[in-house]
Write a structure and sequence with these properties.
The chain has 6 helices and 22 strands. It is mainly β and 336 residues long.
Length: 336
Amino acid sequence: MLGLGAVVNAGMAWAQTGGNLPVPKVQTIKAEDASISRWLMRLHDAARSRTYVGTFVVTAGDTISSSRIWHVCEGQLQMERVDALTGAARSTFRRNDQVMTFLPERRVVISETRDALGLFPNLLNRADSSIAQHYSLKVLGRQRVAGLDSEVVQLVPVDALRFGYRVWTERETGVVVKLQTLDAAQGVLEQAAFSELKLGEPVNMVKLAALMDNTEGYQVQKPELVKTTAAQEGWLFKAQVAGFKPMACHKRMNSDPSVHSGNTLQWVFSDGLASVSLFIENFDAARHSQMVRHDQFAMGATHMLTHRLGPWWITAVGEVPTQTLAIFAQGLERTK
C-alpha cells in the first residue's frame, strides 16, 4: 500500500506489547453501519480537510525512518511539508499534485507531478466500490495511538494475491494515525504511525508556499514524463489478476547518456488499495546481468521482482506478495 508507499510513529502500543494486540473479539462490521467504501471515504475526506502537525515513523524490516510533517487544507488546496529526520537531509513539499523535493547536500530540487507523498497513499487515494469484492472489513476495538483515542479495523483479503491491513483512525476525525501491512500469517510486514500528532495545529500555508517556491541556489531538475498507453507502446497484459485494473501509463525519458537502456515505461495497476508498477526498458547487460542472479527483493511490504523478456528488462514493484508480482511480470506480451 500504500504501495506505498510513496510512498513517511513512539513507544507504540504494538511494539510495547511484543506484537499482541489487546483488543476485543473480532466482529464483522454491520453493512448498515459502514461499508468498506464508506469507511474509506471518511478517511479520504479526513485527509483532505484536516490541518495537523506530527512526527511519523515507518518500520520496514530492519529499517526505521522518521519524518516531520506539516499538513494544511484551504478549500480545494492542500499543502504538505515532510522533512526526513533520518538518513540524508531531504525536504519534500506538495501543493495538490505538484511536488518539490529539496536535497540540500546536493543542492538539487526535483520538481514533478504525482498524487501523494506516500503517507498511507492508497488508503487515502479514493473510495473504490470494487474494493469490497477483494477485502472484508472487521472491527477490532479501540486503542490509543500518540495520545489519541483511535478505532481499530482490519481489512482482510479474500485471496492470496494481496496483503491485509490493520488500520487505526482517530475517533473524532477519521485521520489515519497508524497502519500495519499484514502477511497471510498475520505477521506485520510494515508499520507506519504517528508517534506525535497535533490535530488542528495552525499551519501557515503562505509560508509553506514561499519555502516551496524558493529554489535559489538549487539546480531544479524536472524528470520528463510523457503520458501514453501500453498499447501505443506495443505492450499487452494478457494475464488476469482479480481486482487489479490499469490506472496510468507514463514514459520516462532518459537524459543520461551513460545509461543505454533507453526510455523507461511505467504501467501502474491497482485494486483500490494495493498497487503494482511494471517498469519496462531495454535490457542493458552492464546494468542488468548481475541482477539476473538476484531476481527477487523485499523490504517490508514492498516487493520487487525482475524478469528478462527477450531484449527487454521487466521490473515489477508493489505492496503485494511475490507470487502476484510474478503473474504481472510474466503476463506481459510484446505486440510490435
